[in-house]
Design brief:
Elements: E1 11-15, H1 19-30, E2 34-38, H2 42-51, E3 67-70, H3 73-77, E4 82-85, H4 92-99, E5 108-111, H5 124-132, E6 140-143, H6 148-152, E7 157-162, H7 166-176, E8 181-186, H8 189-211, H9 216-236, H10 247-258, H11 263-272, H12 277-284, H13 289-304, H14 309-320, H15 324-332
Parallel strand pairs: 1-2, 1-4, 2-3, 4-5, 5-6, 7-8
Antiparallel strand pairs: 6-7
Helix pairs in contact: 4-5, 8-9, 8-10, 8-11, 8-13, 9-10, 11-12, 13-14, 14-15
Length: 343
């Protein structure tokens, strides 16, 4: 494969400077890209440039040479041939709208956000296409089993970049891939985005399960049946079923349900302790995408007519005050059924 980014100026803009955006900006800088990391807060940008660390979101690593923080979006995007959007799902439309006037029409657009827009239920590639005035087919999704903390430490990580445009996916692959960050391509944008979003719901459930003192048997069942829910909804939305057996599907699901780094797992564990949702989110101090996604998936399951019992019970725990232990009992007491769909 030829390096399709070689003819372009190697300047990247990463929006925003959360933990994941910072980790991916470091990957790009390690790969020789002149990288601008945008944050809304001028003091935050100044501190990162002085101290060479993002103490607010990812304090454990020193920012590499070639990475500079800025609170000026026009400056960040000026001359950029790659724009990576890593804003939380709730802020994606606002960030994209602000970026649109400053983004070169030829720049490669990648996003690494795992969630749906709460009101419209749109995937992030759809939001970006609308706000940037671009065809959805050219937008690339970066997803897979990848904790920011481990990527920042340059620990071996493998992800997928998905786009309907094979050339765009290969450009993103070339931009991000290196000795510790391996990248595969995939044409299935819907499956990749749905997997990345719904796995956060299942991770909340895994945290609940662990917090209630249940064992490995319960977690294995939760992960497996959670994958069935992801596959059921994703396929109904037009995804390729094979995607769910890959990095964006089972890979991301396993790492998010079993790791101490998972915000969603930690939030679920706190809920199991009887801490209220509002207090949990306050203590986390960062976005817990699974909470918003549970609302979205609850609606989507009705729209597409698919059963998502784990999602349904978590919705009741999060937003209707149901006791977590009662939710587990409800799942275990469901009517008997087939494991696989009947042909």
């Amino acid at each position: 494969m030829t390096d399709s980014t070689a003819i372009l100026p190697r300047k990247a803009a990463v929006l925003v400077a959360g933990s994941w955006g910072t980790a991916l900006a470091a990957v790009l800088a390690d790969n020789g890209w002149e990288t601008a990391l945008w944050t809304r807060n001028a003091e935050h940008a100044g501190a990162m440039n002085r101290e060479r660390r993002n103490h607010r979101y990812l304090s454990g690593i020193e920012l590499p040479e070639g990475l500079r923080a800025t609170s000026d979006m026009a400056e960040a995007l000026r001359g950029a041939s790659l724009a990576l959007f890593a804003a939380p799902s709730a802020a994606m439309r606002e960030v994209a709208r602000a970026a649109a006037p400053h983004l070169d029409e030829k720049a490669l657009v990648v996003h690494a956000t795992k969630g749906f827009e709460a009101d419209s239920l749109k995937r992030m590639s759809e939001v970006l296409a609308e706000e940037l005035g671009r065809p959805r087919s050219g937008i690339v999704v970066l997803s897979g089993p990848s904790h920011a903390e481990e990527v920042a430490l340059r620990q071996p990580t493998t992800v997928v970049v998905a786009s309907e445009d094979a050339r765009a996916a290969e450009q993103a692959q070339d931009a991000f891939m290196n000795g510790y960050f391996r990248v595969y391509t995939n044409p299935d944008v819907v499956g990749t985005e749905v997997s990345g979003a719904i796995k956060n719901i299942i991770a909340l459930g895994a945290g609940l399960s662990d917090g209630l003192g249940f064992g490995d048997n319960a977690k294995a069942a939760l992960i497996t049946r959670g994958l069935a829910e992801i596959s059921r909804l994703g396929t109904a939305m037009g995804a390729n079923p094979l995607t769910f057996a890959g990095l964006a599907g089972v890979g991301d699901l396993v790492v998010t349900c079993t790791s101490k780094h998972s915000r969603n797992w930690r939030a679920g564990a706190m809920l199991a302790e009887g801490i209220g949702l509002e207090e949990v989110l306050k203590r986390m101090g960062m976005v817990v995408e699974g909470v918003r996604t549970t609302k979205a998936a609850h609606v989507l399951s009705g729209q597409y007519g698919v059963e998502m019992p784990i999602t349904e019970q978590l919705y009741r725990v999060l937003f209707q005050g149901k006791d977590p232990r009662s939710a587990v009992e409800a799942l275990m007491g469901r009517d008997r059924t087939w494991e696989l769909e009947r042909l």
